[in-house]
Amino acid sequence: VDGPSYELVLKKEKAHNMDINSVQWHPK
After folding, report:
1. How far from chain centre, in Å, is Cα 20?
2. Distance, CA of 25 to CA of 27 (rounded, Å)
3. Alpha carbons 3 and 17: distance in angstroms, whole number
4. Per-residue pLDDT band at 26 (split at 50, 70, 90)
5. Taking all residues of the chain, what is their mean pLDDT, rounded to a whole number?
6. What is the per-residue burial (b if ≥16 Cβ within 10 Å, else e) of 1-28?
7. What share of the chain is helix, strand, coil (3-state, %, to 5)?
């Protein structure tokens, strides 16, 4: 796997998980 792009994917995954968590903790 390409190093830099792999890093970007991890950051995206992490940000996505944080979004899910904030939705769970702060339902609209």
Report:
1. 9
2. 6
3. 21
4. low
5. 80
6. eeeeeeeeeeeeeeeeeeeeeeeeeeee
7. 80, 0, 20
Cα end-to-end span (Å), the chain: 38
Length of the chain: 28
CA-closest candidate to residue 4, choices 18, 17, 12: 12
Per DSSP, the residues of 1-28 read --HHHHHHHHHHHHHHHHHHHHHHHS--
Cα(9)–Cα(2) distance, integer angstroms: 11
Confidence class of residue 6 from pLDDT cuts 50, 70 and 90? confident
